Amino acid sequence: MVAKPPSKSIFRPPGGVDQGFLHENRKLIEKIDRRRILRGSLSLGALALLGGCDPSENRNLQSVLRAVSDWNDGVQALIFRPNHLAPTYSVDQVVIPPRFNAHYDIEDVKPVSASTWKLELSGLINDKRPWDAESIYKLPEQEMIIKHICVEGWDYIGQWSGVNLREFFARIGADTTAKYVAFHCADGYTESLDMASALHPQTMLATKYANQPIGDPFGFPLRLRTATKLGFKNAKWLTAIEVTNTFPDTYYRKEGFNWFAGI
Amino acid sequence: MVQIANRQRHLHPLPVRIMHWLNAVTIFIMITSGWKIYNDEVLFGWLHFPEALTLGKWAQHGLQWHFFGMWILVINGLCYLTYGLVSGRFRRMLLPIRFSDLISTVKDTLHLKLAHDDPTKYNAVQKLLYVGVISVGILIVISGLAIWKPIQFSELVALFGSFQNARLVHFFCMTAIVLFVVVHVALALLVPQTLVAMFTGGPAVDSQPTEMQHKTAS
């Protein structure tokens, strides 16, 4: 793999490194971009003052802003308190049904059939046998009544039950010293967690909402639910889980959102 | 007590000017990107900020700018607070604020005979506004931290009552800063020597020995 040599200008000519390359070589880009942040930030301020033409989509600015966002991932990992529990609430505060949100409308949800559904396992896991809905729903349950906080700013209180992810990992012999856990979804959505957040006591594979199987729009038959991440990290309609040391890029990060997205 | 050597100083020493303009650009970034983020989920149904005044094409770009700008805002702000406290600038220029002075400043203003021939001395209203906006600046950072990390910093959220309350506080701090900026810029344009001073440093100030409450180990 040979990277194109960086040009001298911080505003590289078109045809330079494309976004796909940036995503695939995250660690490498971080190293390069950190040195450019200071230089780039001066021009950022100047450009920001040219109201009217929005610079955010500019490729070079995007690489600087995304480098800062990736750097913020590291800061959030440092801030993260592995045993600090999110506040929990009482049953009468639970909102039924939960609030729907996705990058498409609720009418476009394609329900997943429990009879054909499977959860595939891959990566650093000893027992990679797939799970069907019946066996997943038989696992010992954890319940938590927690706030769902969306990156947009709204929140609601929800009551979730399912198998604690750390316990599920023990059951399948997942390597919990690995860095990441990747999630694949029936609608093509992708998500991933840092291992510390995956092992947080309030991270689960949820099967029920308010003591009933999760409704179709909210992730039936299985979704991720963690108390320490923004709403969009809680992937719905899970079809596969992978434990890996290679950074698994995600749908929202590719769109420009922060990856760690811790709360 | 430590005495600073007698020497000519500008009204606005170079570090103050650098921090001021860096802050001006950063506040601009934070407010316009904050409006973009706000528009995605408004607090008040009647209030959407015009898209032309927001920074970032979509919400994620507003977020990118906001979490870029926060570093400059906080680091620059901490430098400014440290400088203001250690150099004695805050004490010298912003204190004391006497109620009687406030009344007379307001009276003078209403009688259109407010004196601004000496830009090196702030009147009581100016002092109050500067102390006020610095306090609001601290509060907006604290409420921002509460919104950014409501679980990791759940203690901060408890301070505000709830996550949504912290959002409200963050919003009203923004409103206060915007109002301050409007007044601040309008007055700077009305009395242009104050604007020039923030570029050139302004007149040399009386080099009276600055008394500092340094408790040095002696």
Written description of the protein model:
The complex is a heterodimer of chains A (263) and B (218). By secondary structure, chain A is an alpha+beta fold. Chain A folds into 2 domains: 19-79, no CATH class; 91-254, Sulfite Oxidase, Chain A, domain 2. Chain A is 27% helix and 22% strand. Chain A is built from 7 helices and 10 strands. A 5-stranded mixed beta sheet of chain A has the order 2-1-10-5-6. In chain A, strands 3, 4, 7, 8 and 9 form a 5-stranded antiparallel beta sheet that branches. In chain A, α2 (26-48) packs across α3. Chain A is globular, with a radius of gyration of 20 Å. The mean pLDDT of chain A is 89. Chain B is mainly alpha-helical and 218 residues long. Chain B folds into 2 domains: 1-95; 101-201, no CATH class. Chain B is built from 8 helices and 4 strands; from the N terminus they run ββααααααααββ. Chain B has helices at 14-40, 59-87, 89-94, 99-110, 124-148, 154-160, 163-190, 192-200; strands at residues 2-3, 9-10, 204-205, 211-212. In chain B, the strands form 2 sheets. In chain B, strands 1-4 form a two-stranded antiparallel sheet. A two-stranded antiparallel sheet of chain B has the order 2-3. In chain B, α5 crosses α6 (154-160) and α5 packs antiparallel against α7. Chain B starts with a strand and ends in a 6-residue tail after the last strand. The A-B interface holds A 41, 44-45, 48-49, 51-52, 54, 56-57, 64-66, 68-69, 72, 76, 79-81, 84, 86-87, 147, 149-155, 227-228, 252, 255-258, 262-263 and B 25-26, 28-29, 32, 37-38, 40-41, 43, 52-53, 55-61, 63-65, 67-68, 71-72, 147-152, 154, 163-164, 167.
